[in-house]
Amino acid sequence: MASGTDTGETVAEPVAAETVPRRRWPWVALVFVLVMTVAAAAVWLVVGRPTRTPAEVAREELRVARLELINAAGAHYVGRFTGKNGQSAGLDLRVTNTGDASGTIEFEPGTTLKYLRAGGKTFVQGGREALLALGFSEEGATGSAGRQILQTSYLFEVDVVAELLPSTLGRGLDPNADNRIPVDTGPTATIDGASATGVVSGAVTTYVASNHVVRVVDPTFDVRVTRMDTVAVAQLYSNLRTTVSILDDASNLETQVVSDSGWSTPCGPRCSAVATLTSTPKPFVKVTLPGVTLPVDTIFVAYQLELTIDGTPLDRPDCSGIVEMPGAGTTTVSCAFAVGPGARIESRLTTRPILGRAAADDLVRSWDTNAKLSKDKARCPTTSTRGEPKTSC
Question: Where do transmembrane segments lie in this chain (predicted)?
């Protein structure tokens, strides 16, 4: 056949070489690793995550509740306490985060003392039977019944308010924590209508409900606990300010006063009853420094000289009053009166050391300061169960 003749066969055109695709294996490997990691994490979340023990869960719940109590503006306690001497009594106390307090102590049904802590000083007030239960003598209980009395802060050898300070109590509810000893979960109880779980650490059982400490049982206390907010504490300070302001007449048991009395010579027709008062300090807490004599503040003494002439009481308001005298020393009081020849004169002098106006004014200033300080501390909570709430943020 001649050249160029169509034979019916198709002749293939030359094909260009294919472009070689980029290698994808590094990306495939990365995706594979990510998928496996996510899958492993999912498995760990479902079946492989370490679970906390009941004791660890209970300690965490206790820690949260403790912090809430430590940072509280105050707390209301109702229950009983037992002193180191074995005696016990009921209590119903509201204690602020600055250490002021108000409430009652009940030795037995119907035998109740009013209790007040203001500016670091403790005052009680009650009837004769309550004062006898507190340890007063028959004469002392009879003479002091119904009065405000400056008293030691210790009841049955326990400083109740110091131990019930919310921050102090809160820090002490897990004594085993420092030694990393696990807590135990105790029995549940219904407290104020809510179910509470007992958490046992050492000798302390704390009942916790909804992140609140609602009851504490230890060798000294068995008390229900209700947190007080800043409004409730401010109301307490407002309600009791007047009570604090009239504590100038409170009997002062940190001082002992004895007296001797007689008559002026000659006596008649004008006479004077003369009495010498001698005071001795009887501090609740004794502080001694070797080679140092600590100064003693002046004190105030309320006195009344009752005169009877020929069996008839003499009404003489000027024969009673308040005298300021050295805290360790003497002073003299006198009362003039007229008497007829041969009259029979009898007298009776009673004395009572009192707090005095200046000290009461100091307490009012302290009361007002603590009212503000309480708010400041509540506004600046601590995040540590070992720390104190701050006074400024």
Answer: 27-47
